[in-house]
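Quiz preparation item.
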């Protein structure tokens, strides 16, 4: 299963939702 470092998750939470959208798009591209 795909896991993400906790500190990276906290970094995402601290940033705008646009960054979260970028992260989700990059993950989706990885698992295409």
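Solution:
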């Amino acid at each position: 299963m795909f896991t993400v470092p906790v500190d990276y998750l906290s970094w995402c939470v601290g940033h705008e939702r646009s960054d979260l959208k970028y992260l989700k798009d990059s993950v989706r591209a990885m698992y295409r």
